[in-house]
Amino acid sequence: MFPAPEYAKDVAIALLGASVGIAGLLLVVAGFVFAQAATFPPDETDDEVIAGFEMAGRLGLIPFLLALVEAGASLLWLVHKSDYLYTGVIWGFFLLLILTGLYGLVLILRYL
Q: Where are the transmembrane segments (predicted)?
C-alpha cells in the first residue's frame, strides 16, 4: 500500500487527465480498426479476415473501459481520500499502461 504523500492531489489530477487522454486515443484507434474491417468487400474477403479485425476492435474496449474506471477512481480519490484508493489508482494506471501497450503492439504486428 502506498501512503498518500503531500503531493498526492497532483498525482491524482495527472492520472485523471492521462486516463481520459488514453481512453480517447483508444476509442479512436478501435474505431479505426472497425472502419478498416468495414472497408473489406464481403464478397471478395474471407470472413475470418473481417472477423479478425472486428475482434481486434472489440479487444480495444478492454483498455478503454479500464481507462474510464481509472479516471473515475482518480476522481473518487479527489472527493474521498483513502490510502487504499490511492494505491488502487496507482496500480490501475500501471495496468492501463501495460494493456494499452500490449494492444498497440498486437495491432501493429498483426493487423497493420
A: 12-35, 56-78, 84-109
> CA 55 to CA 52: how far, in whole Å?
5
| Distance, CA of 84 to chain centre | 22
Q: What is residue 3's predicted lDDT score, i.e. its pLDDT?
A: 87
Question: Which is nearest to 21 in space by CA: 84, 81, 93?
Answer: 93
pLDDT tens track for 39-50: 999 899 999 999
Measure Cα distances from 93 to 14, 20, 51, 83 in Å: 11, 11, 30, 16
Please give the Cα distance from 101 to 29 (Å, whole number). 13
* C-alpha cell read off for 88: 488502487
Neighbouring C-alpha atoms within 13 Å toward the C-beta of 29: 23
Dihedral sign of CA atoms 19, 13, 83, 85 in order: negative
